[in-house]
Amino acid sequence: MADFHYQIDTVDVEGSPMEVFLFRPQGEGPFPGIVLAQHIPVGHTGIENDTFTLTTAQRFADHGFAVAVPFIFHWWPKSDSMEVKKAESRDDWMLEDISTAFNTLARHDYVDVDRIAMVGHCWGGRVAWLAACHIRQFKALAVFYGGNIGKGLGEGAIAPIDLAGNIPCPVIGFFGNDDANPSPEDVEAYSAALSEAGISHEFHQYDDAGHAFQNFPNEERYREQASEDAWAKCLAFLDEHLKK
Asked: Using one digit for the tens of pLDDT, what is the confidence trace for 40-51?
């Protein structure tokens, strides 16, 4: 297993304790930051057992970013099934989680609060888009194969795609052309919404890749060439917008 270096801050979100995993680069800083929204950790009870999310956060930290990863499924016991958590998820809860994670990261003196991006994979890709529609401080947004952006979660929730005009920063997206959620048609709709809103964005789509093509612990889904290409493009994008 990779060597991970993080600390855990446990914070209160509407009366529910939430773990925030914090990764700090080597050196003095202040460093640009990333709030990283996790994928759905199938078979895992928490971030500490989620090798993909830990590796992703550590890789960003090794590249010079301070990273905060909130455990956004804290609203339920860790023993509850992911199906229950998905069915009961609400956008207002997720926004509270990401806002709290942003503030948790920003209060550390080694972080430059004016240079923080939002990044997410899978379920977290949708969360990342949603969060950027509401948190004006983000300076960049990276979405990896986020599905269901076309619908709101929870009573009265507005679909994140309909809030595209609120995104305050440039966007980069990565998608597999063999994915069903989001499908290539969904991705086209995402791009159209951003274009209509005048939001600068670049999307990268990969043939012979489906959902979660970066998820290396899942040999069936992982596509190394697409994953590494997406990594390089994402890091270059974040460097451009956060390390000027």
From this structure: 877 677 899 999
Residue ranges per structural domain of the chain: 7-242
Helix, strand, coil percentages, rounded to 5, for the chain: 35, 20, 40
Give the neighbor-by-neighbor strand order of the sheet with 171-176: 7-13, 16-23, 66-70, 31-37, 111-121, 141-144, 171-176, 201-206
Contact 7, 42 (CB under 8 A): no
List the chain residues with pLDDT less than 50: 1
pTM of the model: 0.96
* Torsion angle in degrees (nearest 10) through CA of 190, 234, 128, 182: 40
Class of domain 7-242: alpha beta
Residues for the chain: how many in total?
244
